[in-house]
């Protein structure tokens, strides 16, 4: 694992992964801050949905008993952190809270507790892909077509089982309509809304290669990101899609993304009429729903080194981490706000949208 090559150097002083500061140097090291307690509660609220998924994992012997052990161990560590922020290797943040949860799940023998729901959502989204692309292609104006594609990314990004509230909706209702969601996003201006500036640069066709850190399975990757990537390919760009190495919640993995594309491409390696020879899939080396760009795979670093646009998609990668990250090239953070705590930090609304475009001055 090595630093992402498009981060400015020295990385030690120029890059901080987590967006929300849970504590400041002046805070008492032996007492949890209000922000730490608030986020510990967010992760505690996720335990029932994770436990339920783990209980039904038929690939793991004694899954119900092990799911109970996961719930008890993780809840215990979260309570420890509330009492003493130094109790488990230092004060918690958005990365360590997720990492401990994944470590406990894996230590108990669970490999991918969201596998079944991911497969179901992928199948639904694949069946809708031709219709979504057709609707996009029918829009003649470049700016309008871009905005439609962006709305599709937001609509797809709502498929997030890391949000306790959304996990309950999916469990109860069996999903959320992609096309309905894309038409019913919160009104603009969004909490961060640089779309018009990005649109002006897009129309000038200024980028040659983009690396996109992708997020969730299902509608997110298939109906949101892939139509957007396809449009980039149509414009002559090279596109690198960076996906997780290991499963985390319902995030798409490198292996799953490769399989999805094999189902969507035709016998000529085209995505509904668009050549995919300039579409590359990279294993990011990541195993969490957030990402620390100071540690990525050498494969991704090699494929990304000459990119002139970095896109971080989703709440975990693009908002909770890396929202304020600086790069050597232009960058775009795009995602839907699905935690009330994030909405409050940004001064926006729950299910608000973030579209943050940062242009490098040359």
UniProtKB/TrEMBL annotation:
One Pfam entry name: ARMT1-like_dom
The cross-references to InterPro entries, in alphabetical order and at most eight, read: ARMT-1-like_metal-bd_sf, ARMT1-like_metal-bd, At2g17340, At2g17340_3_helix_bundle, Type_II_PanK
Spans traversing the lipid bilayer: none
What this protein needs as a cofactor is:
Mn(2+); Ni(2+)
Which key words tag this protein in UniProt?
Answer: Hydrolase, Manganese, Metal-binding, Nickel
* GO cellular component assignments: cytosol; nucleus
Q: Which residues form the Damage-control phosphatase ARMT1-like metal-binding domain?
A: 43-354
Q: Which Gene Ontology molecular-function terms are recorded?
A: ATP binding; hydrolase activity; metal ion binding; pantothenate kinase activity
The GO annotation for biological process reads: coenzyme A biosynthetic process
PANTHER family per record: DAMAGE-CONTROL PHOSPHATASE ARMT1-LIKE METAL-BINDING DOMAIN-CONTAINING PROTEIN, PANTOTHENATE KINASE
Q: What is this protein called?
A: Damage-control phosphatase ARMT1-like metal-binding domain-containing protein
Origin species: Eutrema salsugineum
């Amino acid at each position: 694992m090595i630093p992402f090559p498009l981060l400015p150097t020295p990385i030690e002083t120029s890059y901080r992964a987590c967006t929300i500061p849970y504590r400041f140097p002046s805070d008492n090291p032996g007492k949890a801050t209000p922000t730490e307690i608030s986020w510990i509660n967010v992760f505690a609220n996720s335990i029932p949905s994770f436990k339920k998924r783990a209980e039904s994992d038929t690939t793991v012997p004694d899954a119900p008993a092990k799911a109970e052990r996961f719930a008890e161990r993780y809840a215990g560590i979260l309570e420890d952190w509330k009492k003493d922020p130094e109790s488990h290797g230092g004060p918690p943040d958005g990365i360590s809270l997720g990492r401990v949860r994944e470590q406990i799940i894996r230590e108990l023998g669970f490999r991918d507790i969201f596998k079944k729901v991911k497969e179901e959502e992928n199948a639904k989204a694949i069946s809708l892909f031709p219709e979504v692309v057709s609707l996009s292609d029918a829009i003649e104006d470049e700016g309008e077509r871009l905005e439609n594609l962006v709305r599709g990314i937001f609509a797809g990004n709502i498929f997030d089982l890391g949000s306790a509230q959304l996990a309950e909706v999916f469990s109860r209702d069996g999903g959320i309509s992609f096309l309905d969601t894309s038409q019913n996003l919160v009104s603009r201006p969004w909490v961060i809304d640089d779309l018009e500036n990005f649109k002006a640069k897009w129309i000038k066709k200024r980028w040659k290669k983009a690396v996109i850190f992708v997020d969730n399975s299902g509608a997110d990757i298939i109906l949101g990101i892939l139509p957007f990537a396809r449009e980039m390919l149509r414009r002559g760009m090279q596109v690198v899609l960076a996906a997780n190495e290991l499963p985390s919640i319902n995030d798409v993995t490198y292996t799953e993304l490769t399989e999805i594309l094999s189902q969507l491409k035709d016998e000529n390696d085209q995505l509904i009429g668009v050549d995919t020879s300039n579409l590359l899939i990279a294993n990011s080396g990541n195993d969490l729903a957030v990402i620390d760009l100071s540690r990525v795979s050498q494969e991704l670093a090699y494929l990304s080194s000459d990119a002139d646009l970095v896109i971080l998609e989703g709440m975990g990668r693009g908002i909770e981490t890396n929202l304020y990250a600086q790069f050597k090239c232009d960058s775009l953070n795009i995602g839907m706000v699905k935690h009330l705590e994030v909405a409050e930090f940004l001064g926006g609304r729950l299910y608000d949208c973030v579209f943050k475009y940062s242009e490098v001055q040359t």
